[in-house]
């Protein structure tokens, strides 16, 4: 009954699932937050899905109020996110609002709701940012702006919480081969040197959690050796 607890958003697949597996390997009880838990086939006795629509602040508050074993919460991984790219006038207002809620509002609300427990446990907060948050990206300006906001929130939170021995980490991955690109018109190149794998991002999380040197690297940029990306070919 003394196991440490971790919360991971977007845990049903991709980077979130890879990080969840690493946390399980390290002995954590992991609660994976996602909208459609039945879409994942992964099972482990210490891995528990919690269904939550992170675009809905009322559901986030319900998650915070009912979260199990919160007194043992040591790690939060704010990973969930999605993007729509295109000319600004062609983006759906509804999808833009959903992007704001999932990519920026949800991590802020979750951090607000659980930080007191991380202070008690001298825990870790991870934010999965994006290289898009550091670039000027035509057609990706909404997503990039939201990731830039997440980066700034993480940097400010680092200075706020370090005196309480809460460790705040911002991971900024470049092109990573996940289903993130399913609904986009671009995708990683076939060259394996041009993209990251979710397991590589998870390895960075593992290294951070195992480090007992007292040194804290707040911001970590993770890139493949090469930069290549390709546009999808759509059949008419």
From TrEMBL:
Similarity field: Belongs to the short-chain dehydrogenases/reductases (SDR) family.
**Where is the signal peptide, in residue numbers?**
none
Q: Which domain of life is it from?
A: Bacteria
**Which residue windows are coiled coil?**
none
User: Which CDD domains does its entry note?
Assistant: SDR_c
Pfam families cross-referenced by the UniProt entry: adh_short
Q: Please tell me the species this chain comes from.
A: Leptospira jelokensis
> What is this protein identified as?
SDR family oxidoreductase
């Amino acid at each position: 009954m003394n196991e440490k607890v971790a919360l991971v958003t977007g845990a049903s697949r991709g980077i979130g699932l890879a990080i969840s597996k690493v946390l399980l390997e390290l002995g954590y009880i992991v609660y994976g937050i996602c909208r459609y838990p039945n879409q994942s086939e992964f099972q482990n006795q210490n891995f528990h899905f919690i269904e939550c629509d992170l675009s809905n602040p009322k559901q986030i508050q319900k998650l915070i109020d009912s979260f199990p074993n919160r007194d043992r919460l040591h790690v939060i991984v704010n990973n969930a996110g999605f993007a729509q790219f295109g000319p600004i006038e062609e983006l759906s207002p509804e999808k833009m609002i959903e992007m704001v809620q999932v990519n920026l509002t949800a991590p802020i609300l979750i951090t607000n709701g659980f930080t007191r427990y991380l202070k008690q446990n001298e825990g870790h907060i991870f934010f999965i940012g994006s290289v898009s948050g550091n670039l000027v990206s035509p057609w990706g300006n909404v997503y990039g702006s939201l990731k830039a906001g997440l980066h700034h929130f993480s940097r400010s939170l680092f200075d706020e919480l370090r005196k309480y021995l809460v460790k705040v980490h911002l991971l900024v991955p470049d092109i990573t081969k996940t289903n993130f690109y399913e609904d986009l018109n671009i995708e990683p190149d076939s060259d394996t040197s041009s993209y990251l794998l979710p397991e590589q991002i998870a390895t960075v999380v593992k290294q951070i959690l195992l480090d007992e040197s007292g040194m804290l690297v707040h911001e970590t940029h993770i890139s493949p050796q090469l930069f290549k990306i390709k546009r999808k070919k759509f059949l008419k």
